[in-house]
Automatic annotation (TrEMBL):
Domain (Arrestin C-terminal-like) ranges: 191-354
Protein source organism: Oncorhynchus tshawytscha
Name of the gene this protein is made from: LOC112256189
Name of the protein in its database record: Arrestin-C
Family of the protein in this entry: Belongs to the arrestin family.
Source lineage: Eukaryota, Metazoa, Chordata, Craniata, Vertebrata
GO molecular function, one term: G protein-coupled receptor binding
Gene3D superfamilies the record matches: 2.60.40.640, 2.60.40.840
A biological process term (GO) from this entry: signal transduction
Length: 360
């Protein structure tokens, strides 16, 4: 194994080992979460060792917990007893075999299966002055020493725990459908002539960081002048768990000084690239889940499969491209009497599947 992720409890009695921290949602199945816990029974004092995998939604800073407000809501959780060993365990994976050799006779393997209807890891970008952990959906593997798996009356000391944050991620499908097209025809006061606008993109889905060519066709039958073309990309985020909250943030806004005079046409492709690096100051912007302070990107589009419970997703993310024409009457009052002609195109943003991720 190229890398092992390890966390040890404060008292040194248990240590949590994972061979990776990214687990892929293949739509029909999700990578199993397989790891090993090393247990030194000497300091257990008759207590047991447990491990859980939880998918949780965090919607406030850690400070809220100090005043009695719960800032973390578990969407889904599974627990297993690790020590003493009970029942039968599934066959060890090759990674677990390698970890067990490292732990010798104190190692105990565990396996969790993540439900396919659970959300992918996603966070809401904090403002530069914000402290603590960001709002969002995350996954946590936690080993702990306790008498019972989940006794609300039992106080578990922090030194009896160790945990690792993992990510559930999803990559773009292998087949990408053709892109959408939208058009509109608009007339203006005192004229029966029309401005026709058509916009399209070649593919339905683009990868984060890739250029997006937007094809624009304009047929201006009027005497008015199209002064410029504006292309924006909006991210719409719907937070479902703690309240009905839906908001839109612009992640790209570019203007092109293309003038289309009266009774003329234009056909041109404009290339845009929405990037998180250009939106670092926007609080509440949805970003793909991150581990510690590593770089990430704009949140991937949420793919809702038939029969999936939207409420379980925690945060839904969607994108749209808007193409707008600023149409002026010309003359001295042209700028004061300008109006918009616009269309919208749905956009899917995702990460490409790495070559080393098997096709399911």
């Amino acid at each position: 194994m190229a890398k092992i992720y390890k966390k040890t409890s404060g008292n040194g009695s248990i240590a949590l080992y994972l061979g990776k921290r990214d687990f892929v949602d293949h739509v029909e199945t999700v990578d199993i979460v397989d790891g090993v816990i090393k247990v030194d029974p000497a300091e257990l004092e008759g207590r047991k060792v447990w491990v859980y995998l939880a998918c949780s939604f965090r919607y406030g800073s850690d400070d809220l917990d100090l005043i009695g407000m719960n800032y973390r809501k578990d969407i889904w959780i599974q627990r297993q007893q690790i020590y003493p060993v009970v029942g039968t365990k599934p066959a060890n994976t090759p990674m677990q075999e390698a970890l067990l050799k490292k732990c010798e006779d104190q190692g105990h393997a565990f396996t969790f299966n993540i439900d396919t209807n659970l959300p992918c890891s996603v966070g809401l970008q904090p403002a530069p002055e914000d402290v603590g952990k960001a709002c969002g959906v995350d996954y946590e593997v936690k080993a702990y020493i306790a008498n019972e798996a989940d006794d609300p009356d039992e106080k578990i000391n922090k030194k009896d725990t160790c945990r690792l944050i993992i990510r559930k991620i999803q990559f773009a499908p292998g087949t990408i459908p053709a892109g959408p097209q939208a058009d509109i025809s608009k007339n203006f006061m005192m004229s029966d002539k029309l401005v026709h606008l058509e916009a399209s993109i070649e593919k339905e889905l683009y990868f984060h960081g890739d250029p997006i060519p937007v094809k624009v066709k304009i047929n201006n039958e009027t005497a008015k002048v199209v002064k410029k073309i504006k292309i924006t990309i909006d991210q719409t985020t719907e937070v479902l768990l703690y309240q009905a909250d839906k908001y839109t943030k612009t992640v790209l806004n570019e203007e092109f000084a293309e003038e289309v005079k009266g009774e003329s046409t234009l056909e041109k492709t404009f290339t845009v690239i929405p990037l998180l690096s250009n939106n670092k100051e926007k609080r509440g912007l949805a970003v793909d889940g991150r581990l510690k302070d590593e770089d990430t990107n704009l949140a991937s589009t949420t793919l809702i499969r038939p029969g999936m419970d939207k409420g379980m997703q925690g945060i839904l993310v969607a994108y749209k491209i808007k193409v707008n024409l600023l149409v002026s009457s010309g003359g001295l009052l042209g700028g004061l009497t300008a109006s918009d002609v616009g269309v919208e195109l749905p956009l899917v943003l995702m990460s490409p599947k790495p070559a080393d991720v098997p096709v399911e």
